[in-house]
Fold this sequence. Notes:
Layout: E1 10-12, E2 19-21, H1 24-33, E3 41-46, E4 50-59, E5 64-73, E6 81-86, H2 90-102, E7 107-112, H3 123-137, E8 144-145, E9 149-150, H4 151-156, E10 163-167, E11 183-187, H5 195-204, E12 206-208, H6 217-231
Parallel strand pairs: 1-3, 6-7, 6-11, 7-8, 7-9, 10-11, 10-12
Antiparallel strand pairs: 2-5, 3-4, 4-5
Helix pairs in contact: 2-3, 2-6
Amino acid sequence: MVTSHKHIPRIYVVQLNDVFNLNEFQVNHLVNVFRLNVGDKFIGFNQSAGEWECVIQSASKKLVTAERVLLKRTFKHRSKLCIAFGIIKPDNVRLIIEKCTELGATEFFPLGTNYTQRKDININKLKTVATQASEQSERIDIPIIHDPMTLKNFVEYLPTGITWMTALERFNGTKPACLNGDIGFIVGSEGGFSDNERKLLVNKTTPISLGKNILRTETACITCACLYNFFN
């Protein structure tokens, strides 16, 4: 049984050694927000070390030293859930990263498409969003966020070993019947895919329908993640 840590602060620690120091952001989170002090407990985790109950050894406004005392969980590998999406407004990209991380996405692929108006995104900020979403949702791993690439290059070098599906608006096909194993979804930006992009995707991936309504990019990404969770 997995024990909830709802009332104990939970943070991602890169180097979760027997004794470790926390960074400035984490110090502020534990000392100033949660008012923790020497002897208080929190949960530290990362994919390689697992999830640990930790105790603060010393604390100041700028430095917290802690030790891990009890292993709670180890990381268990699971099927991949990849989300590739056309780049949209920054706030909506953050929503995709946050909610799909909570729903178990393991990798994100931001794509430049024919209808993409924004070509650049702040990967570092998005990694912070993914980390905070993992802390909140009690994940042990942090999803990978890849650097942006064009849709053409992405489809040409599709990551292997993954069943790739493209969510096409106004597509008359059926909804996916089963989503077992490593799954990847491709979602367009505002305006969907151009005719040439649709042809390319239909030839290289499995087109699927998410229903009759036209969904925003962030809604479609979250819907895909929910579909995956329904079968896994």
